Amino acid sequence: MRRGIMASVLGLLSLALALSGCGQSGSQAAKKQITVWSFTDEAKYAIAKFEAKYPDIRVNFVHIPGNFYITKLKSALQTASKAPDVFMIENSNIRELIDVPYLENLSAPPYNAGQLLPEQYEFVQANEKDTEGNVRALGYQATPGGYYYRRDLAKQYLGTDDPDKVSSMIASWDQVFDIGERVEKESGGKVHALPNWNAIAVANDGIPWVKGNRLVIDPAYLKALDLVREARQRHVLAELDSGSAGYAASMQKGEVMFYPGATWALQYTFKANAPDTSGKWGLAHGPASFSSGGTYLAMYSKSRHKEEAWKFIKFYNFDHEFLANLARDQDYFTSNRIVNDEIARTASSTYLGGQNHFRFFSEEAKKVPSRQRTQFDNTINNEIYNNVLKLYLDGRIQSKDEAVARIRHDVKLRFPELQVD
Amino acid sequence: MQTAESVERRLRVSENARPRYSFGMLLVYAFLIVLALFCAIPFYLMLIYSTHSNAEIASSFVYWPGGALLENYRHMAEKINIWRGFLNSLIIAGGSTALSLYFGALTAYGFAKFRFAGNKTLFWFLLATMMVPGQLSLIGVYRLFSALGLLDSYAALIVPAAANAFNVFFIKQFIESSVPGEIIESARVDGSGEFRTFNTIILPILAPAVSALGIFAFIGSWNNFLGPLVLLFTQQKYPLPVVVALVQGYYGMDYGLLYLGVALSILPIIIVFSVFSRQIIGSVALGAVKG
Amino acid sequence: MKHVFSNSIRKDHYGYFFIAPFFIIFAIFGLYPILYSLYISFTNWDGIRDPVFIGLGNYRAVVQDPLFYKTLFNTLFIWGVSVIPQLTVSLVLAFILNETWIRGRNLFRAVFFFPHIVTAASFGLLVSLIFDWKSGGFNHFLVSAGWIGDPINWKDNPWFVRLIISSILFFQYFGYSMIIYLAGLQGIDPVLNEAAQIDGATRRQRFVKITIPLLKPVILFQVITSIIGGIQIFDQPYTLTNGTGDPDRSAMTSIMYLYNVAFQSTRFGYGAAIAFYLFLIIIVFSITSFVLSNRKTV
User: Fold this and answer.
1) What is the tens place of the pLDDT at every residue in A290-306?
2) Which of A236, B172, B255, C170 is a good FRET partner for B64, with 20 to 30 A between their CA atoms?
């Protein structure tokens, strides 16, 4: 019995050690290989198409989910250990990493990305250049936002579900709040106009916080504080956290009228959470034109397969045939103006009740302002400002002066290098 | 003068003289049962949630089983390979438990039965290592494995487990109270080498304590989330907790799926524990902790 | 037995061989990373640019950091509120379940241990779901039972969130503590209790005068391991508040703050300094408990 235990222990040990040996990079095939890292697995589609077009290049795709992506990425880039050749960066991190020397300069020859750039929307281009104006990353995704609405609720409470008419009815926050108050009363508290405070705050997404090393509090941010307070008081908000189960459930049951969302929300939020409500939705232009999210591709400056890596990045961003397929197969709104304008001529979405969503987003994309953000913006907005907003909303911070003082105090603490008045 | 016999008789009589179920006893039982119910409720809820769809969980308080189990399973299987996660967890937890127990016993034996210079100091040092927060060394561990080329390997998670101060502490206590020096002496007289003595004679005696610690170590390793998340890259190697976390897409959360994954990952441990509970709880006692 | 005596002395140095593997592995996988973190704590490394030596800059910054103190307070409060019930209730339970007249002892022991088996992270998620404002089961239950009119925003109140976390911790660890106590109890010679019983001691007197003093080493052990574990509370508050420690970081524990600083904002130097301060605090607390407990016996 004891021998058995010892044997099985040793067996387990050797199994473990043996298995640890497997899975390392296998035999060196005749194919060239590049390693691509991402924090989602949506690149699988692109990789399949890429490998079909370039059969002599093999893509080793590594999907690293969760919060550790950036840490692992940074460490890999610095130590060159198991580093990727191509890696994705999300919008919230792109400004922080854009100046890091490990991102290959794509404006330089042989890439000359600067010549291809005009195919993309302006606001995407702004994120792709470092402080010297060199292109360091290329974003295949364009993420202008719109206000998704439930057609049945619109018909019930607004008398129409036509996107243009609905758009004119929600052109300002006052109008939205009026609707919200009415809807909540008429439905006995069951239906609300907006899901949560973020629906209002997201309209300001991207407005810079720092100019020339100095903290700048744009008045829009302060206005948002009052807006969310008013919205809560007038019961416009359903108080469901984004991404929560309740949020998803509300989509399925039709308890909220308007959800601000970006292009990717169609596929990854609506279709994912409420597939059975296809046809019940529409897209309207709301009180603001905004962009939310975005994914960028960058090349490792120490990559040993730069030629193949560039082929992949260029393919993902500028191969018109691929982009058109991606747009059609996955309802994916890419950053390429040319492809989108072409598709916008005939696109329509069953999920959105037959609406031409590509034309909608094309219009919105041209309206999204192009902004110069710094590496501080994301933290200041998401950690410091959002925290203050929530405290203001909950009444723990009473006045706007207090809010401003708190923002200044927290920014000073977190970024001692910035000038705060 | 009280003989042992008469003492025993008096005790038995006094115990039997009490009525079968006093009010105090009922209170005690009530307390135990209520507490046990509280302990069981989360498991019950988890099982229930895994049979409902995301929408149902979010919209009402569910407490009866629903009908979405198969669908949740299908969704989950599309996104992740939970059985592969099982296997990985088994390998990692099994390997690290085995290593930590074996080397724990080895080290404990060394401290307990050999009087060498610095024994006490080194042991205090060992105890002090328990006080270091694990997260302190996380980034250093990452860089170390990176330099050794051991990132993204099972070995990275298994080998460091060999240095488990907690196990050493417990087993040392056990050895000091349950392993008489004579056994070692007679083995030496018989000409057995020290290492052989340890493997063939001491280890079997330690079996009860070791198996009890084994369960704690196994559970700890099974539930380890941060370690594998940081040190592993490829999805096929992720153990269960990380695999279950993968169920959450980047864009949202599906609670039905999540709880199915969680329920599946807990089930084996519960089964093992229920089957072996008597031995485990009994043998922890044998490793009586003394000062 | 002179030859046996001298034999064992000659064998004593073998002890080094036995303990060597532990210390070697620890030196590589334990000590080296700690020393590396120490080195990093004197730099401003951000994970991607080369580290720049800044001396005690990080350590000074931590001392002036209000968030460090806030999270420390959170940690101590959450720990204190959970550990006192945890260690006392589990002691009482161990005592009860050690009595032979209880039926189903093993079943109870097993059930009480179950919460310990659940991954801490899943538990935090489950509780987060239950206490959700609009879609949480707890509110649904209260409203349908008629006890409240509108759902309450539980997670909005800092004290309540801390209490929830303390409760989760109590829940997950009381069974574990109970088992450790059980082990200690079964190491107490039953003759002592019988003798006291014969002399007419009541159950409570036996408990207080015999059991507890004899359990002192076990209690001390539990207190110290719980201090060590308490400073490291992470999984439950992290998943309960989705990593934010909201509201306004009132549920953010020290290690959450460390994780946030070191791995989310990748300020490794600063994070390392925080970690070393926490290590120091653990040592101070542990030594204090040790000294306090030993002083009483004198």
Assistant:
1) 998 899 999 999 999 99
2) C170
